[in-house]
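User: Hey, quick favor. My workstation is busy. Could you predict this chain's structure for me?
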Amino acid sequence: MSLAPQDLFPQAAAWVGSLENTFPGKPIKDSVYLFAVLEVGHVLSLVVLGGSSILLNLRLIGVGLNDETPSEVHRNLRGWMWAGVIGIIVTGLLIGSANGTRLYTSGAFSAKMVGLLAGIILTFGVTLPTTRNDGVMGVGSRLAGLLGVALFLLAIWVFLAAKLSNPGLWHVISAGGLIVLFATRGLTRIGYLAVMAVMIAAQQVMTHIVVKADDYAHLDPVNKGFAWAFVGAILGFGALQALTAGRTREGGPFVKLMAFAAILVWVMTAAAGRWLAFA
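Assistant: No problem, here it is.
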């Protein structure tokens, strides 16, 4: 099932096709360097916004800038976050006007857009107000968190349906695995490392020895099975750490789980954007 914009909004085909022949799409497309400059600006804006969000959410999880209170980190990074989101929107619209036809046929682009919306909701509806209040999450932020997570899961589903692009979800799985590694403590971290080591070794044996490298009919189901197994282990240990840690000065388990989702949504959005080339 394809979930590219052309499948969701077929009536917009003529309008999308006209973008590259009108202002500002045509001069950007015809320029030798302008499109590349906008691409760089778009990536840098995503790095600024996503990086700031990651630092803030790691602080809510209890990892990273622990010598500063969440409100101090918020005060230092909120300007960068606004600059990042404005940069993403402006450069994204300009890039889209010069590359509309290609984006219109890409399922990865749909995943990126849904992920971007989820990231903005989680960042500005949950992360910023929660860090500003030193880990105290109000009712509005909780509702925004539930909406953001629902959209994040929708973006994952769209990414899964994107042909040739869904392997990019391994980036999201890897990022989740690293976050849980740094967030876990004591015996939980030891158990987590042991489980991850066994699963990684098993995957290598299955995909390099048991199944031949060119046997895609059997290789793909094996890799998909391991992907779901890794997701289950990562989420399980992440939830275990959040629940056993209880409430800390950064917030309770719900705050930490929302922070975890807010980090991963930016990783997924970046991955979907980079995998547009394979669509």
